[in-house]
Design brief:
The chain has 15 helices and 2 strands. With about 425 residues, it is an all-alpha fold. It is globular.
């Protein structure tokens, strides 16, 4: 079912501007975050990138809960504005250095990766809390579908842009999946600092859109003046009083854990060492993933309209386990794209169902903090897997396939936990203890 934007007439302009800002910055951010891991892979520095990713994730362990307190304390429009301006300045300075040196050193590329990663950690917590704040409760399911579609369209465009910019495009006949295309023009591959320049521009353009946002809150938020630790304790106390919501928030993150590991770390290694293919295949796989996620945004609520959110998440987690197992034992290019499409469906579908569930069960007053606590479990899981997968064993020949076997087991355990507590998760007793 296509989300009906007319349902949001009370804050229509605010939502459209928010989506516009999220789209323009998301495209350039996506191209950068696809380009950086491939940049390290092409310089035979995958182990180094794994260490960098682990260190950035470790720092996020402390940054994420702090970000959650910002989301719940400050005006969420101004959080977007300040975050965008700071990110634009940081990436802009590194871009300038790249132009001056003629290339981007690995250390500076890692800094852009870290800056974008930390931006994500605050941006998406703020985005969902802001949308919950300006949307009527009866439309939560529709708005989560709409934001997923918008985000994944940006991801698809980023993947397509990265596929062209990483490898360039030559005029003449080009075959993709056996289909021949006549390309009448050529595009030279971009240097990394040129990609960062595009990223910088879109940060400032997104900030301009945010400045224009005007809205009327749909929920009342109380001012909280305590210190960060005091405000964090409020979020912990809410989840302590709602253990099954806490369990759901943690375990339902499992697909997202595996997708982040795949997108930022495992996929470039898998394409290069297991499939023996180039950066265009890696980038195109991001496009097929995004198409699957867009499909989920339009169809997932209709597909599971007669199934509880928890039940649909269990099913999609199990399907994702099958996908990872299949990737471990195959290396066909077409099948790889198909599997990434289905992964886009299951991850985005799970996120839509998960966020709709949390919107209904977590008060807006503590949403940022509760979500940041869930994110801590995500971070700890990724830190464990990154430390494990950074071992030299997984970087020899095509041994990367063993990481997919391990992630299959992780997903199966997660689905089993959700099944074991299904009755408690479907109908939690919720009291606003914020």
């Amino acid at each position: 079912m296509i989300p009906k934007i007319k349902l949001f007439l009370k804050n229509l302009s605010a939502i459209l501007l928010l989506f516009a800002a999220n789209t323009v910055s998301g495209i350039a951010q996506g191209i950068s975050m696809i380009s950086i891991p491939w940049y390290f892979t092409m310089q035979e520095e995958t182990s180094l990138f794994g260490i960098i990713y682990w260190l950035v994730t470790f720092v996020a362990l402390f940054w994420v809960p702090t970000a959650g307190t910002f989301v719940d304390k400050y005006n969420r429009k101004y959080v977007f504005l300040v975050l965008g301006l700071i990110s634009g300045v940081v990436v802009g300075l590194i871009t300038l250095s790249g132009y001056m040196q003629g290339h981007v050193p690995l250390g500076l590329a890692a800094m852009v990766f870290a800056a974008t990663f930390f931006n994500y950690n605050l941006h998406y917590q703020n985005l969902y809390a802001f949308l919950q704040e300006i949307t009527e409760p009866k439309h939560y399911g529709t708005i989560t579908s709409a934001v997923e579609i918008q985000g994944q369209i940006a991801t698809a465009l980023a993947g397509a842009g990265a596929a062209i910019l990483l490898e360039g495009l030559e005029a003449g006949q080009k075959s993709i999946l056996g289909i021949s295309f006549n390309i009448p023009f050529s595009i030279e591959a971009w240097e990394l600092h040129e990609i960062f320049a595009l990223d910088t521009f879109t940060y400032f353009l997104a900030a301009f859109f945010v400045v224009l946002i005007r809205y009327k809150p749909m929920v009342e938020r109380k001012a909280e003046m305590g210190k960060i630790m005091e405000r964090l304790r409020t979020g912990f106390n809410f989840l302590k009083s709602q253990p099954y919501i806490f369990l759901f928030g943690v375990v339902s993150f499992s697909i997202f854990v595996t997708v982040l590991l795949l997108a930022f770390y495992l996929s470039p290694i898998y394409v290069d060492k297991h499939m023996g293919l180039g950066g265009d295949v890696y980038a195109i796989s991001e496009v097929t993933y995004a198409f699957g996620a867009i499909f989920a945004g339009f169809a997932i609520r209709q597909l599971f309209r007669r199934m509880a959110a928890v039940g649909s998440i269990i099913l999609m987690t199990f399907i994702t386990a099958i996908l990872f197992a299949t990737m471990a034992f195959t290396n066909d290019e077409l099948l790889f794209y198909i599997l990434l499409f289905v992964l886009g469906v299951t991850n985005a579908g799970t996120r839509i169902q998960r966020i709709t569930y949390l919107f209904k069960h977590v008060p807006n007053q503590v949403y940022g903090r509760a979500n940041s606590i869930f994110a801590i479990s995500n971070i700890l899981a990724r830190m464990f897997f990154l430390a494990l997968f950074s071992l030299p064993l997984f970087h020899k020949d095509n041994n990367v396939v063993y990481t997919f076997v391990i992630l299959t087991g992780f997903l199966l355990v997660s689905s089993w936990i959700l099944i074991a507590f299904y009755s408690k998760l479907v109908s939690p007793v919720v009291e606003d203890s914020a």
